[in-house]
Amino acid sequence: MGFADKEPAPEVPELKSILFATDFSPASTAATPYVAAVARQYQAKVYLAHVIAPEPHPAGAPDPAAGTLEQADRDAWQGLAELSKQFEGVLHEPLLGHGEVAATLGGMIRKHAIDLGVVGTHGRRGFRRFLLGSVAEEIFRTLPRPVLTVGPRVSTQARQEPVFRHVLYPTNLLEKPSDAARYAVSLASQYAARLTVLYVLEVLPEASTTDWQAKLVVREFQEQMERLIPAAAKARFNAEYKVEFGEPVATILRVAQEGSADLIVLSVRKADLLASHLSENIAYRIATNAECPVLTVPAGS
């Protein structure tokens, strides 16, 4: 018997405070409708956060003039005021921070007891502005809360009508039910959505494997996936359990597209300090190529 047989997963995590991290770029503000929609659905308060990161300058060169920093502050507050107009009827508060982006946002999360972070990204690397490229990946790999990422392939229509009718939850069957499964269950329940739990096997069945043997393998994984979802929650939404064969990123994206998923929920590990190739991160590749938003949930959150 697995651990889920002994202890059902907690059912619904609270989403009472949302941190919307923005750099005011079109890629960033594309996430605005999702922030407002989730805030209204959960009656949450939204913190509109912008971080002014330090600009590197040559060793021995003088720091930028105070006037330049003051102008950056004025521009940031003006940007936050403009963004606030998109949140009429939603309780919200602007926040302006200075410093390294991920660390500064982490401080905001602790200070304001944030339950969910939201970022937008265009998915390209090598840009300095903080939500662009690999820094967006750093945010959802290091922040201690779930992060909803709205990538460049999310359609304009989906952004205008941010409703979750189909939630896709790929699992590696290693995380505890109290991790990403809780959020997949919460959102599927909250929106009366269909829930698909997916497990991807990279190794294809051997040619000698019979049809009934393959079905037994598939059924074994389906039973493990079913144990991730508490019985009390299953009655409130339609759930299906799929096993697919192939490369994980391509397979998850294909299943999401074929099933018209409105949200993908992924469990992610905290950033590995020894990792040198963040570009290989599966979650980031999915978030920037999916046609729907991606919710990444830190393991053990």
Radius of gyration: 20 Å
Strand order of the largest sheet: 3-2-1-4-5-10-9-6-7-8
Q: Could you say which overall geometry the principal axes of the C-alpha atoms support? A: elongated
* Structure class: alpha/beta
Give the rounded overall mean pLDDT. Answer: 79
How far apart are the first and last residues' alpha carbons, in Å? Answer: 24 Å
Q: Could you give the count of β-strands?
A: 10
The SSE order reads HEHHEHEHEHEHEHEHHEHEHE
The number of helices is: 12
* Share of residues in helices: 25-40%
Main sheet overview: 10 strands, mixed
Stretches with pLDDT under 50, minimum 5 residues: 1-10, 125-133, 272-280
Beta-strand content: 15-25%
Annotate the secondary structure layout:
Blueprint (H helix, E strand, L loop, with lengths): L2 H4 L10 E5 L4 H4 L2 H11 L2 E8 L13 H19 L7 E7 L2 H11 L4 E5 L13 H9 L4 E4 L5 H5 L5 E5 L9 H11 L3 E8 L9 H16 L4 H4 L4 E7 L2 H11 L4 E6 L13 H8 L4 E5 L3
